[in-house]
Amino acid sequence: MRIRISHSIAYAYAEPARHITQILRLTPRDHDGQHVMSWRIEPTVDGRLRATQDAFGNIVHSFSADGPIAEMAIKVDGLIETSDLAGVLRGTAERVPVDVFRRETLLTAPDEALRRFSAEATHAAGTPLSQMHALMEALHAGVACIETDERTGVGAAAAFAASEGIAQDVAHIFIACARHLGMPARYVSGYVAQSESLRHANGAHAWAEIHLDDYGWIGFDAANNLCPTDTHVRVATGLDFSGAAPARGARAGGDGEALAVRISAREDGSRLTEQ
Amino acid sequence: MAAFDEMTGSGAELRPAYDALDRWLKEAPPEMLALRRSQAELFFRRIGITFAVYGDEESTERLIPFDIIPRVLTKPEWTRLEAGLRQRVTALNMFLADVYGPKECLKAGIIPPDLVYRNACYQLDMVDFAVPHGIYCHIAGIDIVRVDADTFYVLEDNARTPSGVSYMMENREVMLRLFPELFATHRVAPVDNYPDQLLATLRSVAPRTASSDPTICLLTPGQFNSAFYEHSFLADKLGVELVEGSDLLVKDDVVYMRTTQGPKRVDVIYRRIDDDFIDPLVFRGDSVLGVPGLIGAYKAGNVTLANAVGTGVADDKAVYSYMPEIVKFFTGEEPILKNVPTWRCREPDANAYVLDNLEKLVVKEVNGSGGYGMLVGPHANKAQIETFRRKLKAQPEGFIAQPTLALSTCPTFVASGVAPRHVDLRPYVLSGANGISCVPGGLTRVALKEGSLVVNSSQGGGTKDTWVLDA
User: Fold this and answer.
1) Mean pLDDT of B375-398
2) Three-state secondary structure along B79-110?
3) Average pLDDT of the residues of chain B
4) Residue A210 and residue A238 in contact, taking contact as beta carbons nearer than 8 Å
5) Closest approach of B292 to chain A, Cα-based (Å)
């Protein structure tokens, strides 16, 4: 599938900002099943944009600009060619030992309820792979994924207690359970192309990847109860959201921030008719 | 428990190092000693050297009790200790360079890889990053305990932001003022050159972009931090600016300090903020103490952080248990300083033994510090032991256990007069491109409660001046 993505993160400040620094993980990389045909990342104000890679191999742009800045936006446009590999990940540059992904983090720390849930959800399943599928189904059935821009994540334990969360929370719950069961797990931030068959496809999305000895890394999208297909575009990974967040920023001044995010990720079919 | 007393040995003799001190204690009029004790307290109050105790709602700041009877080490004792400390810190730095670089010690099976990789203090951003001059742990505080005339153990390596050195210096200062006569009868090795040595160490590790006169600052979490007094004390003694995160800014991967004359480029930051809080763009995003972009500047090679980011993986208590092997692997020498025998509760056999012997052992959280989250079996009640039993069963990998050591005692003023109290020692070891240095002695902490083995100031410990006799 050819997916056209446009993503805009716009900030407006009641008090103009004197200085802005941002760390952006907004650039996908190639791997089997995902080819980046074009990608552009552009801030709307003058500043310095520098690309590096982080420990996980994510492409990281650091952006800084001097004020006064009353408003600014980071605009991303790109075209990705994907194919469906049933969630199995191949052709990524893995830089970090798998053991690292057994670490517990603040956002993925399990509580007693999550530990019990992981055991109950998987006790009937035989292989590690079927355990993860069982976990995905149980999680999909038990925790509602809320589609909203109004909420931020609350972490695995809190979202599980509330039986609902945003996609980020659902991914964190999955990761917390998998790690509790002894499996290396990581967080993926990315996009999902809008489609009739997927309920949770408002553009930006998050899911989990689990490392299984026989297969390597496999994606599990519990919000949609499936392994990622050619509708999924993988952008960044980390131990949890904080290491894979699309944008992290700090500013001097700039009180009264208003944030507006617009994302469109859709199959690139309309191009011919537009011409 | 019959502990070794540093003045009287097993109780019958008088060890030569304490000869003159013993005479002085016997001859000095009790009123004079009482007066000096209150003068010492007044001195500490006046200079405002206080310590905040977390969880103590009565008073957010209080004075750490100071005991006027010094703790005495002989030159030969210190010489051997110092050699051991240098060896230990050399190994710590080599271990850090290795786990963030070639990982030879993991390949050789010296330490289980998951202890490193799963450790939250193992900072992935530091992997394959060449720190300036190859030094990670510039300032180490190695906690030492003694059990007899010849045996010193390392109890803990503090490789992150060890504190307490200001007490070492102030304790000496107050002793010099109150008891000049004692310094006339003892040749005590000075400690007042510590700031010079620290400054030389910090200057030596400036990045190559710095001039021959690098700009150094001390980064504090601010006045609400328990060690704020020490931060301001050290900045003053070093002659460098004391800054908070909001006083620094990063532009184009260069760190600047806001001054009245405009931004000034900073080359070396002696930071007393933990990794987690140092840069909200990389670590905890809710931190308001840090400097956004600092890690970017660090990784661009434009600033040195002392200590380096990620040193916590070396002083983790589970990693500690492998230190004898680590020392041997990296230095090729037998460790001069012993480790306390340690049961790793992550190993099922060890945990079974620990669970069977809780009333005899000291159990510590792998990631705990400051004497919190610790069980001292022989001094614990049934409920405390059962609490730890549950914790050990639920999360064995979070704990280690050690035998309850008969820590040495030193004569100490208490309500009833002079009595032996358990002590430990924290020497400060500095590592720079200019080599390793260590002022003689360090900070002696004393458990003021009779029989108590917990010397932490947050748990009712006090301090003493530490003397290394030059002759």
Assistant:
1) 90
2) HHHHHHHHHHHHHHHHHHHHHCCCCHHHHCCC
3) 91
4) no
5) 6
Q: Predicted confidence band at B61 (pLDDT cuts at 50, 70, 90)?
A: low
Q: What is the pLDDT of residues A117-143, one digit of tens each?
A: 999 999 999 899 999 999 999 999 999
Angle at the Cα of B140 (from B139 to B146), degrees rounded to 5? 150
Strands of the sheet containing B254-257, edge to edge, are: B248-251, B254-257, B264-265
pLDDT of residue A247 exceeding 70: yes
CB count within 10 Å of CB B61 equals 13
Of B114, B117, B296, the CB nearest to A62: B296
CATH number of this structure's domain A85-243: 3.10.620.30
Which tens digit of pLDDT belongs to each residue from A55-108?
999 999 999 999 899 999 999 999 999 999 999 999 998 989 999 999 989 999
Q: What are the residues whose beta carbons fall under 8 Å from the beta carbon of B377, sequence distance 6 or more?
A: B357, B358, B359, B360, B361, B362, B363, B385, B404
Q: Which of A18, A23, A54 is the best residue to mutate to test the B interface, defined by the most B CB atoms within 10 Å of its own CB?
A: A23
pLDDT at A273 over 50: no
pLDDT at A198: 62
Let me know: does A177 contact A158? Beta carbons within 8 Å. Answer: no
Question: Model ipTM?
Answer: 0.89
pLDDT tens-digit readout, A159-195: 999 999 999 999 999 999 999 999 999 999 999 997 7
Three-state DSSP at B60 gives: coil
* DSSP 3-state of A53: strand
For A115, the closest chain B residue by CA position comes to: B394
- The DSSP 8-state label assigned to residue A208 in this structure reads E
Number of A/B CB contacts below 8 angstroms equals 59
- Pairing outcome for strands B304-306 and B268-271: parallel
Tell me how close the Cα of B371 comes to any Cα of chain A, in angstroms: 23
By CA distance, what is A103's nearest residue in B?
B118
pLDDT (0 to 100) of residue B48: 66
The hierarchical CATH code for the domain A2-80+245-267 is 2.60.40.2250
Enter the tokens of residue B6. 């540093």
Type of residue at A127: T
Nearest to A99 among B113, B250, B296 (CB): B113
Contact indicator for B111, B319 with CB cutoff of 8 Å: yes
Cβ distance B120 to A55 less than 8 Å, yes or no, reads: no
- Chain B residue closest to A50 (CA)? B252
CB contact under 8 A, B120 and A249: no
How far off is chain A from B159, nearest CA to CA, in Å?
A: 22
State whether residue A47 is helix, strand or coil: coil
Domain range list for chain A: 2-80+245-267, 85-243
**8 Å CB contact of A250 and B252:** no
Whether the link from the prior residue into B221 is cis, omega within 30° of 0, is no
User: Measured between alpha carbons, how far is A169 from A143 in angstroms, rounded to an integer?
Assistant: 10
